[in-house]
């Protein structure tokens, strides 16, 4: 029997609560979701929006990515709370540092992926997470970056120049009605990275409310181009309804 994939539908996967260990001695709460019976073809490391404004590993695009993409696209999804950030899974140690000490958090996630031989690692940043990606994420392990609603707040010319020089692909998903950076301005700013692709999303705001499917389809088109999109909106097989408690940091 076919089941409609809804916001809280959790499809089959191997899910493991993980702890990331930073170089400055903190433990970060996270989860790794893997395809149930096959090796992943690529890995998403999800860097969440600003924790002082409600961002965390359960932010809705990332929660839906972890619930769906291991089954629908054979992707590994690693999501975690940066320092001081809390979600239903728990609070990561430390305190928010405005994107500075969070460099250790990004490095810890990359070290985990490397140690566990996770393949074809892509950074997927959203809002604050896009600045973490551009400022701290240019690592030899990283295949490229997907940037959701990038405000380009802390990312300066030298960071964009470094990505340009690397040649690594950068895909910016820009809401038409974004509060911080809209498509025309984004194309001007990202011109500093010749290989960057800027994609505008009509009738979409910074938080992508009601638009998660469009974001997931765009991510899959980049990191798993052999997977047909749009992704299925129904599922034939076992599934669960998983209500996640959203916790205010």
UniProtKB/TrEMBL annotation:
<protein>
    <recommendedName>
        <fullName>AB hydrolase-1 domain-containing protein</fullName>
    </recommendedName>
</protein>
<dbReference type="InterPro" id="IPR029058">
    <property type="entry name" value="AB_hydrolase_fold"/>
</dbReference>
């Amino acid at each position: 029997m076919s089941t409609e994939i809804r916001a809280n539908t959790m499809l089959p996967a191997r899910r493991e609560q993980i702890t990331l260990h930073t170089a400055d001695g903190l433990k970060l709460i996270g989860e790794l979701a893997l395809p149930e019976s096959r090796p992943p073809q690529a890995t998403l490391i999800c860097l969440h929006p600003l924790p002082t404004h409600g961002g965390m590993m359960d932010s809705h695009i990332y929660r839906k990515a972890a619930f769906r993409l291991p089954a629908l696209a054979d992707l590994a999804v690693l999501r975690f709370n940066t320092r001081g950030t809390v979600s239903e899974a728990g609070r990561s140690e430390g305190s928010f540092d405005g994107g500075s000490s969070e460099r250790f958090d990004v490095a810890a996630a990359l070290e985990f992926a490397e140690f566990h031989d996770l393949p074809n690692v892509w950074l997927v940043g959203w809002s604050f997470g896009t600045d973490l990606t551009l400022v701290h994420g240019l690592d030899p392990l990283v295949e490229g970056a997907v940037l959701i609603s990038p405000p380009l707040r802390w990312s300066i010319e030298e960071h964009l120049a470094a990505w340009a020089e690397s040649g690594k692909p950068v895909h910016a998903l820009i809401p038409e009605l974004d509060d911080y950076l809209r498509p025309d301005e984004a194309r001007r700013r990202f011109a500093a990275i010749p290989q960057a692709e800027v994609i505008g999303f009509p009738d979409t705001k910074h938080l992508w409310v009601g638009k998660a499917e469009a974001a997931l389809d765009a991510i899959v088109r980049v990191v798993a181009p052999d997977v047909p999109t749009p992704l299925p909106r129904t599922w034939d097989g076992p599934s669960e309804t998983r209500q996640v408690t959203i916790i205010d940091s």
